[in-house]
Amino acid sequence: MASYFRLSKALILLWLTYIVLTQAQSEPWSLLKAPKELALKLIRDPVTLSLASIDYGHIVHDNPFEVFEPSSISDISNLIKFSNSLAIPFTIAPRGQAHSVHGQAMADDGVVVNMTKLNGFRNGGRTVVAIVSDGTGAPYADVGAEQIWIDVLHATLERGLTPLSWTDYLFLSVGGTLSNAGISGQTFRFGPQISNVHELDVVTGKGDIVTCSAKSNSELFYGVLGGLGQFGVITRARIALGPAPTRVKWLHLLYNNFAAFSGDQEYLISFNGRSETNAADYVEGFLMLNQPPLDLSFYPESDRPRITSLVTQYGIIYIIELVKYYDNSSLEHIDEDVQLLVQGLKFVPTFMFEKDVSYEEFLNRVHSDELTLRSQGLWEVPHPWLNLFVPGSRITDFDEVLGYQYYTGGRREMPLGSPTSTDPSPRPSSSSDLQPQPGTISVLPPVIFPQRGTHDTSSRLGILAEPRTPGTTSLG
Ligand SMILES: *[C@@H]1O[C@H](CO)[C@@H](O)[C@H](O)[C@H]1NC(C)=O
Ligand SMILES: *[C@@H]1O[C@H](CO)[C@@H](O)[C@H](O)[C@H]1NC(C)=O
């Protein structure tokens, strides 16, 4: 009894200390004086608060004071204006799918805006995409920033159209990837997703609702694209579309030599015109390490033993992942086109593997990995991920560092530290020098894309401090 009493007294003391500290720290309590129409949408129940206190990275925990559930764009505007009216404004963080890896979608003691709640009011659906044509006849889609890319894909495919540039993982929000860069294997031809946007609606830091584009309010437009959420809340994006292919030839080429691998990647991305018919439609690359169990699910059962032997023999196998889109009109010559594309490439002879899948199955390829990882309890775990860009001229050095780590049996720690994982790069000032930001959102590894205006290329490296799946890691 006595000890129980002592314990509860200690708890009360702790609790009191906590309150005093919180009050002294900032003024979140002023949020309790929010105007009634805002107050109704400010949620404080513990379950909602705890949902908003973590992101995909599972590394940072920040507790918001409240979660805001907007049902219109003006709700977001009013929230920002209310914050600005206080002596000490509170922090506001928009949250889409929260695929940030270091707390970027959180607001410690501030307000997290649950952007997903906007779904309900857009004609009541998650997949509302208006497809119209501008003066030049080029199609585009108007998309709520809270929409996720898989839904955008479905809605545009119904009209035989598709966005041109992608992210590897499609269950991310449009506002989320456009606040970063949106990078995948199409980037070398179309640029990142942020280079395929005609117009945005943004709620600014003053709470104004502003439409911006390259021609009007361009500073805001280029600030917000890739702006890591620091220049306003994106609420709508007008996204460039093109005709959708129906099927893809999906290739893996295996290399035992880094120079041959990276040389061939550079060659493949040298056909990079938007309308270049001989070009690949997607190029990425990754590594397979001699650390069983290998993920060989892409390959035919009968080839798996010889792939395993190859990996055992060389320790590291480099893989170019290459895709060529087609449809009924190109059905007759697609095999020939693929042959032309891989002619002269220096992969290990006979180690070229091909799958033929639908366009959607290919774009949504990470989802099946997700389902597998979820079933093994490996999805909601810490993701100490680093994405960085390495100039093509230095990529070989990088391979040597990695190789050293692997061959010495060292743990797969981040070999170069993590200087770029959270710091935004210098801001681009115009569309012509838009460079992808070090992604905090991108899910899967590498891509090589030409940096506009220079003759060098960059490789995006995705590095996992702890490997996600045994036996595979990411380098391109
Ligand atoms: C945001 O809203 C969606 C849709 O209602 C819900 O599924 C999700 O859990 C909410 N997230 C947070 C952090 O409240
Ligand atoms: C393509 O051809 C297949 C088989 O001939 C047919 O079922 C399909 O409807 C065609 N698709 C289009 C878009 O024409």
Automatic annotation (TrEMBL):
Family affiliation: Belongs to the oxygen-dependent FAD-linked oxidoreductase family.
Region entry Disordered, spans: 412-476
Sequence ranges of Low complexity compositional bias: 418-438
Lineage start: Eukaryota, Viridiplantae, Streptophyta, Embryophyta, Tracheophyta
Enzymatic reactions: N(6)-dimethylallyladenine + A + H2O = 3-methyl-2-butenal + adenine + AH2
Signal peptide: 1-24
Gene Ontology MF annotations: cytokinin dehydrogenase activity
Cofactor(s) for this UniProt protein: FAD
Domain FAD-binding PCMH-type as annotated: residue spans: 60-244
Cross-referenced Pfam families: Cytokin-bind (PF09265), FAD_binding_4 (PF01565)
Enzyme Commission numbers on file: 1.5.99.12
Keywords (A to Z) from UniProt: FAD, Flavoprotein, Oxidoreductase, Signal
Cross-referenced InterPro entries: Cytok_DH_C_sf, Cytokinin_DH_FAD/cytokin-bd, FAD-bd_PCMH, FAD-bd_PCMH-like_sf, FAD-bd_PCMH_sub1, FAD-bd_PCMH_sub2, FAD-linked_Oxase-like_C, FAD-linked_Oxidoreductases_BP
Protein name: cytokinin dehydrogenase
